[in-house]
């Protein structure tokens, strides 16, 4: 009888223990709600790719915060030079969701919210990691627009603190999506400039872990992971959504470049005085533009910390050495012809080997290369003409 009594007491006590543990887990699970916020592009250039942030609701504390890894300070000394070099410090910040929402409503930038289906342990672990990132020097990081940005920080936080793994990547390279965004925003010349600055590193195929490096890419990846997203909602402040944007470069400056190329080529045929004057002015402008553009390509490829710009083969046709040709242009001797022959040989070598190079050249870039070919051909002819005048 005593044994039976003790067994009943033990069973009741064990039942209470399991009930309390179950109750604790149930009460703890809804305590935290973590969402990924994907925001549309804005009007400023640096917002052309959109934005990613994390929303954390703590029902016990009554808090509703947004953690934002895309924060920087325009008042930073030497802001532009630090950004170009890749030494500008970005940092994580936190603000009330109501303020975040109001700001994007004001800017008319839609917000897509994906509430994540995480366990209590995963949510607590990620929340603790976010709060640790807010402390001291932990909050700062060196921004890299492909490998370390507001989106990759959220992506890495998710996969480092939960059991989920990324889906198989369908992205062929980093370049395509980076260049496409400015075209979609109606600033195609910015897109072309970025295309010129990106090196062969950007043409690598992203791994599954790297693929979601931009806001919309991460949104799609999360949506494709089974049972990860509990619910999705959209706050519409603008009729234009990311889903309606064409995935093409419809407003490309290609036709303008082809038109310029055709007119510039006509200078090789027509020799009247007006054409010669206009063509000579064009020569000087192009030499100056290629010199400055070449300096920027050289700096971004060999000096800056932006890995996306490393190993840029555009340096073969747009480089700082055009400054020599620019100076020689006004000296009536044959040296400009020899210089131009070297430059032209480098360009033709690039074109011939471009199929095997690890870097993609768009049709817009090839059109610019064709303009460089005509420029150097004209320089060769100018040098030959100087020789005739001397004789």
Structural category is alpha+beta
Tell me the domain tally: 2
Distance between the termini: 129 Å
CATH fold node name of the largest domain: endopeptidase fold (from Nostoc punctiforme)
Number of helices: 13
Mean pLDDT over the residues: 87
Structural description of this entry:
The chain is α+β, with helices and mostly antiparallel strands and 391 residues long. The protein folds into two domains: 31-171 and 208-243, endopeptidase fold (from Nostoc punctiforme), CATH 3.90.1720; 254-390, no CATH class. It is 51% helix and 13% strand. The protein has 13 helices and seven strands. It has helices at 2-28, 79-85, 97-106, 120-133, 150-161, 175-184, 188-197, 215-224, 254-266, 273-302, 322-329, 335-353, 363-390; strands at 32-39, 51-58, 63-71, 89-96, 111-116, 140-142, 229-235. Strands 6-4-3-2-1-5-7 form a seven-stranded antiparallel beta sheet. α4 (120-133) crosses α5 (150-161), α10 (273-302) runs antiparallel to α11 and α12 (335-353) runs antiparallel to α13 (363-390). The longest helix is centred in the last third of the chain and has 30 residues, at 273-302. The protein is elongated and about 90 Å long. The N and C termini lie far apart (129 Å). Residues 1-28 have low confidence and may be disordered.
Helices and strands, with pairings:
Layout: H1 2-28, E1 32-39, E2 51-58, E3 63-71, H2 79-85, E4 89-96, H3 97-106, E5 111-116, H4 120-133, E6 140-142, H5 150-161, H6 175-184, H7 188-197, H8 215-224, E7 229-235, H9 254-266, H10 273-302, H11 322-329, H12 335-353, H13 363-390
Helix pairs in contact: 4-5, 6-7, 9-13, 10-11, 11-12, 12-13
